[in-house]
Amino acid sequence: xxxxxxxxxxxxxxxxxxxxxxxxxxxxxxxxxxxxxxxxxxxxxxxxxxxxxxxxxxxxxxxxxxxxxxxxxxxxxxxxxxxxxxxxxxxxxxxxxxxxxxxxxxxxxxxxxxxxxxxxxxxxxxxxxxxxxxxxxxxxxxxxxxxxxxxxxxxxxxxxxxxxxxxxxxxxxxxxxxxxxxxxxxxxxxxxxxxxxxxxxxxxxxxxxxxxxxxxxxxxxxxxxxxxxxxxxxxxxxxxxxxxxxxxxxxxxxxxxxxxxxxxxxxxxxxxxxxxxxxxxxxxxxxxxxxxxxxxxxxxxxxxxxxxxxxxxxxxxxxxxxxxxxxxxxxxxxxxxxxxxxxxxxxxxxxxxxxxxxxxxxxxxxxxxxxxxxxxxxxxxxxxxxxxxxxxxxxxxxxxxxxxxxxxxxxxxxxxxxxxxxxxxx
Length: 426
Hints:
Protein name: Beta-lactamase-related domain-containing protein
Strand content: 15-25%
Number of helices: 14
InterPro entries: Beta-lactam-related, Beta-lactam/transpept-like, Diverse_Enzym_Activities
CATH class of the largest domain: Alpha Beta
Largest sheet: 6 strands, antiparallel
Order of helices and strands: HHEEEEHHEEEHHHHHHHEEHEEHEEEEH
Structural class: alpha+beta
Shape: globular
Helix content: 25-40%
Radius of gyration: 21 Å
Pfam family, one: Beta-lactamase
Oligomer: single chain
Organism: Didymodactylos carnosus
Number of strands: 15
Domain Beta-lactamase-related: 130-402
CATH superfamily of the largest domain: DD-peptidase/beta-lactamase superfamily
């Protein structure tokens, strides 16, 4: 509620009815304080929690530390560029040249594919698409929004934030500040006799750290405790013991991502950290509306909490479509993109690279692809409730889909939708 009201500018009523309309949130009561920019919430008077909004840092849930301690924190935050993007051509700006629409695109087929994503075919399984943006060969060729949303609406990316964290690691690797094959610089694992000392940044990126961390959003799992009950999410995740030998088993956890986020903080330093994603990544891509939120300790919640417009998310995808080159600058190395989109040797199910999901199929068997009607070279950032940035190099496509899809697995027909978009290209 705090993030939606103070970052996205949504009304309390909208947020309560839609995003917080499902069990158990529909039984919650929220009090929004527009004076001190905070929100308090409880369920039947119990489990009272409070979140505070701070400019440039987003909303932070008060846990373990006091509100006074959190409000007393001071950070060097980024200053957004003072420019009007409406007067600057895409992708650095929002000016779209209508005369440059590619002649090999069947606009009718493309629009039909997009329209279909806004039609509810099953009243018991609402897909609630909120935004779609299609970029072909660098050009923004289509976008559409649900009522109440527009190209300036900031939408929560959830676990697409993991892919941002990966990009920030990639920048530090390019600058030779980190080596992903060396033991991860995590204070809790410094002792050579600690079995976790063998965890590398690479195994954290590939979700093969081996930590005994449970990722489950429907029980009081490690992930839930980390996101809602701890002040220092990375320290909480790093405190877990080893369950499997690093590099042997892929198990997706938000804990790995938040450990990476704190590694970035320690590597960059306090004076640079809170402006680092903006200076070194977002503003270079024209992502001027993006915001990453921090936990109570001040570390970016690199697993889950970032807000951006659909166009901003598309710009991020375009960086990867262009092999790390953007606005004539090699922001990520081509080798980093290659590693990011390569199946980890221990990942037998063909699903994960460096904090991006892959479509390679089990053991590179294309017949077992997650999205069988989409090319095997497709990779994507994915978030809870059906957020996605699909990057399909062989088709020169970046497709962003954002929504509130609370169906099992957040399914909304991505395979058919992307196939229809691809079929609109002659």
